[in-house]
Amino acid sequence: MIDAIDWQLLARVQQGLPLVSRPYADIGKGLNLSENEVLKRVARLKQQGVIKRLGVVVNHRRLGYTANAMVVFDVAASLIEQIGEHVSQFSFVNLCYQRPAQGEQWPYNLYCMIHGKNKEKVLQQLEYLKQSCGLLQCKSEVLFSKQCFKQRGALYQMSPDQEKEKV
What we know:
Elements: H1 4-13, H2 23-31, H3 35-47, E1 67-73, H4 80-87, E2 93-98, E3 110-116, H5 119-133, E4 140-144, H6 160-166
Antiparallel strand pairs: 1-3, 1-4, 2-3
């Protein structure tokens, strides 16, 4: 069951954690909760599936990483898990995940995101990745970002029934 304090906590968390040494203590102060109580509530909300995941949203461009490429590979199904694990170990790979191929027009099933200071650096890193992971023979595409959209975490919203219960 999600109570009014949980909704206040979700409202604070979805704005992003404060950039202080103890963000959960800081959030707790605003809700009259201890740091430990905030952590317990967040853990419970994660366990209940209300919070799907907690993570960092990095603005790569502000850090000087202006070349961003989604790289897609057509990997044999029997190797995708092994290769995906290997690809995800590289420090320059930000994301690595599997998606079903979409026929001959889009046969790609392994995706990874590479960020770099410039396009040439990303292409060098990609070549190193392909050689290291045995991906030189796999069909692939490199899709460089042309536009940066607003990056943010999840938004939580009460249903009308939950809003009535709160009153």
